[in-house]
Amino acid sequence: MKAEQVLVIKLGALGDVVQATGPFAAIRGHHPNAHITLLTAPVFRDFLAASNWFDEVWVDSRPSWKNWRDWHRLRFQLRGAQFDRVYDLQTSDRSNLYFHLMLPGRRPEWSGIARGAALRHDNPNRDSMHTIDRQADQLAIAGIKNVPSPSLDWVQADAARFAVTAPYVLLVPGGSTHRPEKRWPVGAFTELARRLVARGVMPVLIGAGADAHAIGTISYFCPGAKDLTSDTSFAEIVALARGAICAVGNDTGPMHIIATSGCSSVALYSQASDPALCAQKGADVTILRRDDLSGLSIDEVEAVLKLD
User: Using an 8 Å Cβ cutoff, are 273 and 182 in contact?
Assistant: First the structure.
């Protein structure tokens, strides 16, 4: 007998992917003998393939709206797999369109928000729910009642190559380049790093290429900091988080990894994002919020750090 064919769609962003790990586990638990395929962005392929939730990982090429050849290729791939059920955890305009690519003919049972979906999540309050609660509510309609909390316990990685000296604190001073209002000032991170060094604690700076200028500034004025810009995989961030005393960072993807890994975390929010909808979740998470993060003092942040 052919195994049930299940597709899970989760394209990004990083924080959303981390918060979907609970739903991933719940879907696998609900379909223990199914062949489960994940459709995701290239950057998450290897990271999520290392879990035991998926039998296969497809990369979404995200064809442009005018590239009909790639759309036809994607449609052929989706229809050819003959999925029995699809869990659209992205619930975007793009993933809704994937539902309609299944026509004509039989379409799988579809859990998402696309019009015509058999398991449509039509809760009028979905946009005011935290991501985790919204996905759990969506899966309940599909018959999955127990959705665990996000977890990265399955990640296996080693941070030894970074030669980080304990005790250390992770600092995440970057974030979306087009949302500068979500960032605590670089000068504040620099002074916090200097204070940590004075207390015998190594600041370890985590970020991507777009954060190089901010992290470079901190490193220049705080030579005792360890700059790991663009040098950490997602799994290695988990390993670093497991060994850190605590972490401080803006509302950005790596902070979701760090918090979910169990590290004591302080996440900084401005009016640009609402923690009620997207806050980091973990064993020990503190949210500090100001309408303008320049109004958040270094003393306030230092006071909530658990350095002992």
Answer: yes
